[in-house]
């Protein structure tokens, strides 16, 4: 999972390129047909004119992008002003995804560390337990979360019974619920790459740091974290990117006030209220943001290797 | 050079280390002197590395005390002990360049960036790595990495430097060169070195004193010459160099001499190790001290079972009358008559060449 992102074309890849072409062809075809072509279609659609009741008219138009960024009044002839609605949705998506990433990191790092420092036999069991929830469909998991945190759900009932609170905490339909949903959905994507990095970590380095008068905190911040950084970054990307485009958690747990980009795009392709070019444009803007994050990561990797 | 009357740098006092039911170190006591190149020598699993890790603070001791110039350090965490370690696989910080690696300990001790950098430059010059100061560890050869590890551990000017088989990852030629460098470095810096190795040649060539360790116990402490020439017990005699162990019956021990009967019935007087007792025992005789002679009047007689040609030397394996085998190492010179397989030959050795061991 993490390997795909971290590994560039190495020496061996070039050496075997001659043999590789026929073998790698199916993979290229799959990526071409199911990844590049659909994105191409999206890109084209985002520059077309919308057809009411869904679909597009084959006529070039910048209306979708214009609608995303500018407000031209009800009849479209006022002087353009910045349209904040969608930018706010994007902004909300970014901080929700960012916070979910941070939360996953804070919980995921110690978890991964714990698993990687168990004896080899028990490690497998812990890893298995981490992946167990993934055997259940994401939709069902998200709905289950709603049942857990709703006003008369087990969480509130328990807190009320224990006398910790006197009124149920309203979590459903708040940003906190979205946060919980995102965090719960993507935590393993943080744990697994960090686990892979910690498992390779040479614990003699921690001893060397302690031998050279470093406290535990300094050892963590100056030796352990920099050395397992590739795993941390891979985990952050694997949580941030799907969180950013997530629509199940905001839809089911957040309600209308906690709309995120995923839901916005989702809505554009549903029924008569839809607007395909606008949905495609929003998707393209989201994609550019994800690409920006990945480019940032790739550059930091390249810098690390060059040193 | 280290003098035996020098101050005690590290006093290991009755240290026992248990892992569950396993005794890794059993009541070990050693006094390591100031400015000494001291080696812990033993086979793998004997406890020598455990002892080093106890001094560094990576392992707690179950019992006893470890004193560093008089202060008990046994309860201090490793980052509060003024000793530094050169690790077996070097454990260089892979994300820092050579200079940063060397500066690490200095910065933790509160030196300024400039001070630490200057000191790092100094130490890197000492290990002749100045031109690699800006390289990353992965860009260095094994030998260079080893010297960075050495520089990093020397930079804070520790009272005692601990070296955990630092040469074992190097190839033979490099290892021999680094031995001399290490010894020289110890003389130049005046730091007490505690060196762990399983390689007896390494131990013999570099150390002021050696502690031979086996089964978590100190078997013998002494100079290279002491432990080679005057081994106390069977383990030491056998582990250090090659030796012949000859079954004898000891009639009497008088002072440091033993009167024993060799297989074949010859009576023989030789030095005895302290603690040797009468009854059945073993004599140690090094192969190079055994000479071939006329069977008539020789101490022992044997039948040649194998001849190994080694260029400068010849190994002659023989079987004694009691069925035990014995090896003589004969110099390959024109004066020597080399026996043939199956020949019956006489074997002689001087009184001082044999030693009755503690079993």
Distance between the termini of chain A: 26 Å
Helix and strand succession of chain B? EEEHEEEHHHEHEHEEHHEEEEEEEEEE
Strand content of chain B: 35-45%
Mean pLDDT of chain B: 90
- Proportion in helices of chain B: 10-25%
Q: Any idea what the CATH superfamily of the domain at 84-268 in chain A is called?
A: MetI-like
Q: What is the number of helical segments of chain B per DSSP (H or I, 4+ residues)?
A: 8
In the CATH scheme, the class of the largest domain in chain B would be Alpha Beta
Which range does the strand content of chain A fall in? under 5%
Radius of gyration of chain B: 24 Å
Number of spatially distinct domains of chain B:
2
SSE sequence of chain A, one letter per element? HHHEEHEEHHHHHHHHHH
Distance between the termini of chain B: 34 Å
Give the CATH level 1 class of the domain at 84-268 in chain A.
Mainly Alpha
Please explain how this structure is put together:
The complex is a heterodimer of chains A (307) and B (359). Chain A has helices at 3-6, 11-15, 17-45, 63-69, 84-116, 120-131, 138-149, 154-161, 175-200, 204-211, 216-244, 248-254, 261-268, 276-306, and strands at residues 48-50, 56-60, 70-71, 81-82. By secondary structure, chain A is mostly helical. Chain A has a domain at 84-268: Orthogonal Bundle (MetI-like fold), CATH 1.10.3720. In chain A, a hairpin with a 5-residue loop joins β1 (48-50) and β2 (56-60). With 359 residues, chain B is α+β, with helices and mostly antiparallel strands. Chain B has two domains: 8-229, P-loop containing nucleotide triphosphate hydrolases (Rossmann fold, 3-Layer(aba) Sandwich), CATH 3.40.50.300; 242-356, Nucleic acid-binding proteins (OB fold (Dihydrolipoamide Acetyltransferase, E2P), Beta Barrel). Chain B is built from eight helices and 20 strands. In chain B, the strands form four sheets. A six-stranded mixed sheet of chain B has the order 6-7-8-3-9-10, sandwiched between helices. Chain B has a five-stranded antiparallel sheet with strand order 13-12-11-14-20. Chain B has a five-stranded antiparallel sheet with strand order 15-19-16-17-18, with no helix packed on it. In chain B, a hairpin with a 2-residue loop joins β9 and β10. The longest helix of chain B is centred in the middle third of the chain and has 18 residues, at 172-189. At the A-B interface, α10 and α11 of A face β6 and α2 of B.
């Amino acid at each position: 999972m993490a390997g795909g992102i971290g590994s560039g074309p190495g020496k061996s890849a070039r050496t075997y390129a001659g043999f590789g072409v026929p073998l790698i062809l199916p993979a290229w075809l799959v990526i071409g047909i199911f990844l590049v072509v659909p994105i191409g279609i999206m890109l084209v659609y985002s520059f077309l004119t919308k057809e009411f009741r869904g679909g597009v008219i084959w006529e070039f138009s910048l209306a979708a992008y214009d609608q995303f960024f500018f407000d031209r009044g009800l009849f479209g002839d006022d002087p353009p002003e910045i349209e904040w609605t969608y930018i706010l949705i994007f902004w909300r998506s970014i901080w929700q995804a960012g916070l979910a990433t941070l939360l996953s990191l804070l919980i995921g790092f110690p978890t991964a560390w714990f698993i990687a420092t168990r004896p080899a036999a028990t490690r497998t069991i812990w890893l298995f337990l981490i992946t167990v929830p993934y055997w259940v469909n994401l939709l069902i998991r998200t709905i289950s979360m709603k049942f857990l945190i709703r006003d008369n759900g087990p969480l509130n009932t328990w807190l009320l019974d224990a006398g910790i609170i006197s009124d149920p905490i309203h979590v459903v339909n708040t940003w906190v619920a979205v946060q919980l949903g995102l965090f719960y959905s993507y935590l393993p994507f943080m744990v697994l790459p960090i686990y892979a990095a910690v498992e390779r970590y040479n614990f003699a380095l921690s001893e060397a740091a302690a031998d050279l008068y470093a406290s535990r905190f300094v050892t963590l911040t100056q030796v352990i974290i920099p050395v397992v950084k590739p795993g941390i970054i891979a985990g952050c990307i694997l949580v941030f990117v799907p969180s950013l485009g997530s629509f199940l958690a905001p839809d089911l747990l957040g309600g209308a006030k906690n709309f995120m980009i995923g839901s916005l795009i989702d809505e554009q392709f549903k029924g008569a209220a839809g607007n395909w070019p606008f949905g495609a444009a929003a998707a393209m803007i989201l994609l550019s943001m994800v690409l920006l994050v990945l480019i940032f990561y790739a550059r930091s990797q390249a810098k690390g290797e060059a040193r | 050079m280290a003098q035996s009357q020098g101050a005690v740098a590290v006093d290991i006092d009755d240290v026992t280390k248990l892992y569950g039911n396993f005794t890794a170190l059993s009541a070990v006591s050693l006094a390591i002197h100031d400015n000494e190149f001291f080696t812990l020598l033993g086979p793998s699993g004997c406890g020598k590395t455990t002892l080093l890790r106890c001094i560094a603070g990576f392992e707690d001791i179950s019992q006893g005390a470890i004193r560093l110039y008089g202060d008990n350090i046994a309860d201090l965490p490793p980052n509060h002990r003024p000793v530094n370690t050169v690790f077996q696989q070097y454990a260089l910080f892979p994300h820092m360049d050579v200079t940063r690696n060397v500066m690490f300990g200095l910065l933790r001790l509160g030196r300024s960036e400039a001070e630490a950098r200057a000191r790092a430059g100094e130490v890197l010059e000492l290990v002749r790595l100045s031109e690699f100061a800006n390289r990353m560890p992965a860009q260095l050869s094994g030998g260079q990495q080893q010297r960075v590890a050495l520089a990093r551990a020397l930079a804070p000017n520790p009272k005692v430097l601990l070296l955990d088989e630092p040469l074992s990852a190097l190839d033979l030629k490099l290892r021999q060169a680094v031995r001399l460098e290490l010894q020289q470095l110890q003389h130049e810096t005046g730091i007490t070195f505690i060196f762990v190795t399983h390689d007896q040649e390494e131990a013999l060539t570099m150390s002021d004193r050696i502690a031979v360790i086996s089964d978590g116990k100190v078997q013998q402490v002494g100079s290279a010459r002491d432990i080679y020439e005057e081994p106390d017990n069977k383990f030491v005699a056998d582990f250090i160099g090659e030796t012949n162990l000859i079954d004898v019956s000891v009639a009497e021990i008088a002072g440091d001499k033993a009167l024993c009967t060799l297989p074949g019935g010859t009576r023989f007087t030789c030095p005895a190790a302290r603690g040797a007792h009468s009854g059945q025992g073993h004599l140690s005789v090094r192969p190079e001290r055994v000479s071939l002679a006329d069977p008539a009047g020789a101490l022992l007689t044997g039948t040649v079972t194998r001849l190994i040609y080694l260029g400068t030397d010849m190994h002659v394996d023989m079987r004694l009358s009691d069925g035990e085998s014995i090896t003589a190492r004969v110099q390959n010179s024109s004066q020597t008559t080399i026996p043939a397989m199956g020949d019956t030959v006489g074997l002689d050795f001087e009184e001082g060449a044999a030693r009755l061991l503690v079993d």
